[in-house]
Amino acid sequence: MSIVKKVFDQIDASWTEEVHFLQKLGRFPSTLGNEAAIQQFVADKYKELGLNTDVFIPDEEEIKKIPGYGPHELPYEGRPVVVGKWETKGKPIGKSLILQGHIDVVSAEPLRLWDVDPWAAKIEGDRMYGRGICDMKAGVAALIYAVQAIKDAGIELGADLFVQSVYEEEVTGNGAVATIAKGYKADACLIPEPFGPNAVASQIGVLLMKVRVTGSGAHVLGANQAVNAIEKAYVLIEELKKYEYELNYIRAKHPSFQEVDHPLNVNIGVIQGGDWASTVPADCMFEARVGFYPDIDPKHVINEITDRLMKVADNDPWLCNMKPEISFYGHHAWGVDLDRDHDIFKCLKKAHSKVHREPMEYLSVTATVDTAAYNINGIPATCYGPAGKNIHAPNEWVDLPSVKECTKVYAAYILDWCGVRNESEFLEDKPKLIKA
Ligand SMILES: [Zn+2]
CA-to-CA distance for 363 and 203, rounded, in angstroms? Predict the structure, then answer.
């Protein structure tokens, strides 16, 4: 029996267990700042697999030095990152690999729009529902069970394998940055984001920003006039929407995004202001997420946006005196544009073909994921993952058969990329000599 077949059989045999494991992951409400319990659960699983497990708190001074770091608002105390190391014995015969998943999930609000409990990991037919089930606890389970199947088959890998569980993928990318700062590096990194069984070759860069606008109620400048902070925030929001239009329809498209209709989204994601319908609001804060093409330094985008908004403020009779406060927090993520002939894709294509008949496709995605941190630090990283729907929306679900397929593709990928040290043990029995 071939090695791959043997491992696939293991994956089939442990499928029910993998589904239960995914349900357990889904029942942790691991939103921002609430990752400790699930990280402990993942660390225990790594230890059960025999991985040399490092549970550590990101070192603020060290992560700040790493490209891809994003300024964060919550402290890291009590919020561990977990790395399971499977170090090869002796001189490597293959290439080292990082398998990384994020266990943080976005908020399940508004809860009233869900048809199921977002934290129950309910199964209906081939689907499992829940916040974060698709993005990306299913991928996390698939990575772990691919490794478990390889372990259970008695295989010794030919290069180091690091299985990493991080957080803050949804806000700063600092979980991935923390593993790099701690010295975990490899020849490639595979991340099971739920883009389906396709390889992500290009992705945009992302910045998060916050703008605070003050109206008249809070300042002596407004004593003889009522200036509504929410309406003044709109002046700036309109400029951001103009900027978005210009990015997508006036400036040249990046070659890797030619087929994408509207690659660069400027999303106004939060707005807060006022506290009484009959009071002129004195304060308004809004947050936005801004996309930009690969090869553009996030610092350049920060300067461009700040200049534009300040120019608009200068031309406004109120904002010229009461300047908006603009800050950039969270993601300062570079875009990614990998060569589609890179070894990482050749290997992924081969692994994919062991499970799927249809050829693997390449994607240019309009979001950022943790691959940004790896690529900017010289570790080629791509995403390949399960299929599902409604990520970051009510009634998120993952397609369970696609999770099983991914588990197999990851296993085939690991075997090929890292190599198998004890391959000879798995060769077909040679025909025996028959003595006369
Ligand atoms: Zn994700």
Answer: 8
How far, in Å, from the CA of 418 to the mean position of ligand 1? 25
CA distance 162 to 374: 14
Question: Do the strands 361-365 and 198-203 form a parallel or antiparallel pair, or are they unpaired?
Answer: parallel
Three-state SS for 26?
A: helix
Q: What percent of the chain has pLDDT over 90?
A: 91
Nearest to 135 by CA among 391, 393, 404, 420: 391
Q: 367 C-alpha vs ligand 1 centroid, how far in Å?
A: 10
Residue 383 Cα, ligand 1 centroid: separation in angstroms?
Answer: 10
Topology at the third CATH level for domain 205-333? Alpha-Beta Plaits (3.30.70)
Strand 97-102 with 189-191, pairing: parallel
Does the 3-203+336-425 domain belong in CATH 3.40.630.10?
yes
- Helix extents (H) in 315-386: 343-353, 371-376
Q: How remote is the CA of residue 411 from the centroid of ligand 1, in Å? A: 21
Distance CA 8, CA 409 (A): 9
Render pLDDT for 266-285 as a digit per residue (tens, 0 to 9).
999 999 999 888 888 999 99
Which 8-state DSSP code applies to residue 197?
A: S
pLDDT digits (tens, 9 = 90+) for 7-62: 999 999 999 999 999 999 999 999 999 999 999 999 999 999 999 999 999 999 99
Domain ranges of the chain: 3-203+336-425, 205-333
Q: How much distance in Å is there from the Cα of 425 to the middle of ligand 1?
A: 38
8 Å CB contact between 257 and 296:
no
**pLDDT at site 92:** 97
C-beta of residue 328 within 8 angstroms of C-beta of residue 69: no
User: Is this structure's pTM higher than 0.85?
Assistant: yes
Residue 353 Cα to ligand 1 midpoint, Å, equals: 24
Helices (H), 225-369: 229-245, 298-314, 343-353
Across the range 184-194, mean pLDDT stands at 97
**Burial category of 300 from C-beta neighbours within 10 Å (exposed 0-12, middle 13-18, buried 19 and up):** exposed
Between strands 189-191 and 381-383, the pairing is parallel
**182 alpha carbon – ligand 1 mean position (Å):** 22
**Radius of gyration in angstroms for the set of CA atoms belonging to the chain, rounded to a whole number:** 24
DSSP secondary-structure letter at 420?
A: B
Q: Tokens 């081939």 label which residue? A: 126
Structure tokens at 221: 């400048």
